[in-house]
Amino acid sequence: MTGKRGLVLEGGAMRGLFTAGITDVMMEHGVEPDGLIGVSAGAAFGCNYKSRQAGRAIRYNKRFARDRRFSGLWSLLTTGDYFNAEFGYHVVPRQIDVFDDNAFERNPMAFVAVCTDVETGEPVYQQLDHCNYDTYEWIRASASMPLVSRVVSVGGRKLLDGGVSDSIPLQWAEQNGYTRNVVILTQPLGYRKQHSRLMPLMRLGLRKYPAMVAAMDRRYVMYNRELDFVAEAERQGRCLVIRPLEKLPIGHICHDPDQMERVYQIGRQAGLQYIDRIKAFYNLLGNDS
């Protein structure tokens, strides 16, 4: 088989636990893509694929669901980040639910986090091969939602949520040699994004970054075009798309461990239903498994 096997993970904040359920099943069944391209929660939870830590994303999210050190209004008011930057992206993975840096670095699978440059409004695709402070900052930047996150400075750039500029980076994956892509979406078939009702607040909160405001203003157009691109690629057999059957029972923000578990289990069920199709699509069955 020519070309590379890609795994494209949309964001969606806590809807990403649906994705985590699927990717955990994929890991448990020994599926190894050549590269993972993650956006926002797709990067924050998807990094556990490269470190081969199935179960980690749901475990720490449930453990710290009601811990104000991890997320919440207290964190937003005291640090400027709803999801606490230091505790969530450095203390937890370094000291509490330890991220396996060595496994991450040994795994040959490419891992790319998508961010948005607030000064240009354009997407930034950062491949992360080694674990250090900046690696965690790139992942934080990818998942930093406007209005409830500070701008993240890393790699000489000022960054926020990658979903603002490239929510479903299938086209980027194809342009970079990934010819067989599994795409995991967090919205059901037929979903179309609407123009954000929060634009007045966005214009105020991001007034220093007019290009970012413009990107937010046209985000729904970009997103719906990407849905159309995915649909055409799916029709042509260039990608395998996994999406929830209906709207997931969770919002962008959630502090209920039981609700988190429900969404994660919906993802696991989808993963189990699709695992043979994933292996066949990646050509991992028979002698190639």
From the alpha-carbon coordinates, what is the Rg to the nearest angstrom? 18 Å
How far is the N terminus from the C terminus? 13 Å
- Largest sheet data: 8 strands, mixed
Identify the overall geometry.
Answer: globular
Order of helices and strands: EHEHHHHHEEHEEHEHHHEH
The whole-number mean of residue pLDDT values reads 96
The helix count comes to 12
How many beta-strand segments? 8
Class computed from helices, strands and strand pairing: alpha/beta
- Low confidence ranges: none
Residue share in helix: 40-55%
**What fraction of residues sit in β-strands?**
5-15%
What does this entry look like structurally?
The chain is α/β, with parallel strands linked by helices and 289 residues long. The protein is built from 12 helices and 8 strands. Strands 1, 2, 3, 4, 5, 6, 7 and 8 form an 8-stranded mixed beta sheet that branches. A hairpin with a 2-residue loop joins β5 and β6. α1 runs parallel beside α2, α1 packs across α12 and α3 packs antiparallel against α12. The protein is globular. The protein starts with a strand and ends in an 8-residue tail after the last helix. The model has no long low-confidence stretch (mean pLDDT 96).
Provide a quick synopsis of the model.
This protein has twelve helices and eight strands. It is α/β, with parallel strands linked by helices and 289 residues long.
Main features:
alpha/beta, 289 residues, 8-stranded mixed beta sheet, single chain
